[in-house]
Amino acid sequence: xxxxRKLVEGASEETPVPKKPKVKEAEEQKADALKxxxxxxxxxxxxxxxMPQFTPAMVKLFTDKEKLVxxxxxxxxxxxxxxxxxxxxxxxxxxxxxLSFHAMGMAQTLSPEDCxxxxxxxxxxxNERARTIAIAAKYAICHKGLxxxxxxxxxxxxxxxxxxxxxxxxxxxxxxxxxxxxxxLIQQGVAVEEMLQAVGPFASTV
Length: 206
Known about the structure:
Structural class: mainly alpha
């Protein structure tokens, strides 16, 4: 039985496969999707949008997901603190694309010294709240969301409740998905723009 209905006897359980659009139609759909990402989503027209893995459906899905997650008000975590979580997790996953983006985001609220520490995989030292958020984000990905007893107690001693950790864990999980996708795109040959390289993990070397 499928969700909500019985299958007719002898009917196939296979989901119909979407038809691949013709070349011209596909080009038009991609152009419309890129316009949606830049004009509706506010994203810059960067190289990764041109990758074939970013189908029109993926462009719109990614745009809508990012808009929703990043604009939706959380109970415990501010928009600026989302950037810290994203950068901490992206540094751990060594995703140059995501880490560079969120390094730029962190720069709006954290000192250059704290930003560099996070980009390098460390913890900020000049902002206690940012340090707490960063520690919790590291714990969130350490055991795929699980917290050992002393870890949970340590976070609680710093003011991280179960409810607050839940928000941090959710945000850490969604940026991990982004990291997986963008590391794959880099491996497939997408360029990391110079403006991102300038604030990324390899800014002082390559």
